Amino acid sequence: MKKLYTMIMTATLATGAFGAVETPVLFSENFIAMEQHSDYPTDGWTTYGNGAVPASSMSDYFGNTGDGPVYLLLRHADKCYAMSCTNFDPATAADQWLITPPIEITDDAMELTFTGAVYCNAGNWGLGRNPIKVLVSTDGPAHDAFSEVPVYEGTVNGTSASDVGTKIINCPLNGFGGKTVHLAFVSTGENLGMTGFTDIQIGNYAVTFDNKTPQVADAGQMVTIDLNVGMKTPVACAGFTAVLTIGDETQTRSYTKAFGGNGTSLLYQRVTFDPIEMSGSSTLNYTITVTPNYEGAPASVLTGAVGLPSVSYVNNVVIEELTATGCQACPSGAASMEYYHDIYPVEEGKGRVIPIAIHGNINYADPMNEGVEGYVASTISRNGTSSYPQAIFNRSTRGLMPDRRQEVASQMERRSYNQVNITSVDAPDAADPWGKELTVHFDVLNAYDAESRQLTAAAVMFEYNVRVKT
């Protein structure tokens, strides 16, 4: 499987989504298990392609003859996408099909939902165009057996903060009860980079939970259970009922926003409950049951926890700073890095400022930029500005250098409830590192106990003492 490696990566410990969710799902696929044993969709999934020759860097992934793979399984952040090519030489519109195994549809009113993605084009979906179609066949997976069904899409998520733009896309599957179907996800469009899909689900309705509840709180602190529920039902539905359960106590909230019927995408409702005081010495475990208000609707259940910390750890601040050849203001960025280094010396029991200086270029043929172009481009995309010098602080606060001194001071005063300890590193042979994997072994110390908490660690690889060959 092709993987992209950059010369510089950042060492961070980040928290992902938390809480387990059980929804009434008939069929689901996120490709993660499949990717562990194959570079391509397998397990009954089939593909059709347009047979065109992938252009430029796309040929590194999809071959340079036109008969390479139509879809690849590629990781980005914590998701695995089935991705296809839309860049061809000569310029040709994509027509890349990914077809499911046979699926038995149990009810006449079902809802399909999935995450569509556009990669390598700064998350741009092409002036608002949707390069993704959905087709259904009840007569097997033959190319001419499919008919297109309408799709409804949300807004692009992540365009200014990532090089992957995603949309939640949903589609009512009405009238197929008792039938066996194949679904075809078709990537269209031209020169959009890679496009693809993940988190495919078919169920009685589409639902998403954006849990905004704190994951950790101190004793005596008041905590509000807070989430944003997105819902789309295939039939008319006057809202939903949400029930919070903590031990033997319950709270109920009822909402009347119409979520159902054709012609709409997911609609969202903010759900909050009465504040709860953290007490005792144990984790606060809670369950939220959400039931759409139509006859026979099954419930979806979210379980979560708020940890009560016993200790805390010092907080470090990782600064990724970008300068460039030909940038007249960039010496101020370098001076800021020296400033942070001087006022936050390494001291026992105190947090550290970890500055990482990345040098790019501004339309110059600069050998120092060799190998970091992709990293620089994605960092600029995350920051939402193309000006230099610029920086990202702990992958959360973005801005130009050197105007974030107060932000660094604020982050240095915080305490962390998690700490990572690197135990060993398995590095490739320095004489031939390209295309090899770097394995970092680490332990995570948590100051509290919270079930189903997901932690993500990103490794860092530096290259020191670079010399230009003359």
List the helices and strands and how they pair.
Elements (H helix, E strand, L loop, with lengths): L11 E4 L4 E3 L2 E5 L2 H4 L10 E3 L10 H4 L9 E5 L2 E7 L10 E4 L3 E2 L4 E11 L12 E6 L9 E3 L2 E2 L10 E11 L5 E8 L6 E10 L2 E6 L10 E2 L2 E7 L5 E9 L2 E10 L8 E6 L3 E2 L6 E9 L7 E7 L6 E2 L2 E9 L4 H14 L9 E9 L11 H11 L6 E4 L3 E4 L4 H9 L1 E2 L1 E9 L12 E8 L8 E4 L12
Parallel strand pairs: 26-27
Antiparallel strand pairs: 1-33, 2-24, 3-15, 4-7, 5-6, 6-15, 7-14, 8-14, 9-13, 9-15, 10-11, 10-14, 12-13, 16-18, 17-22, 18-21, 19-20, 19-23, 23-24, 25-30, 26-28, 28-29, 31-32
Task: Provide a descriptive summary of the structure in words.
The N terminus is likely disordered. The chain is 9% helix and 41% strand. β23 and β24 form a beta hairpin. Strands 3, 5, 6, 9, 12, 13 and 15 form a 7-stranded antiparallel β-sheet that branches. Strands 4, 7, 8, 10, 11 and 14 form a 6-stranded antiparallel β-sheet that branches. Strands 2-24-23-19-20 form a 5-stranded antiparallel β-sheet, with no helix packed on it. By secondary structure, the chain is mostly beta strands. It folds into 3 domains: 181 residues, Jelly Rolls, CATH 2.60.120; 100 residues, Immunoglobulins (Immunoglobulin-like, Sandwich); 140 residues, Glutaredoxin (3-Layer(aba) Sandwich).
Structure summary, number of beta strands: 33
Number of domains: 3
CATH fold call of the largest domain:
Jelly Rolls
The general outline is globular
- Mean pLDDT across the residues is 81
Gyration radius (Cα, Å) is 25 Å
CATH class type of the largest domain: Mainly Beta
Question: What helical percentage do the residues reach?
Answer: under 10%
- Unreliable runs, pLDDT <50, ≥5 residues? 1-17
CATH architecture of the largest domain: Sandwich
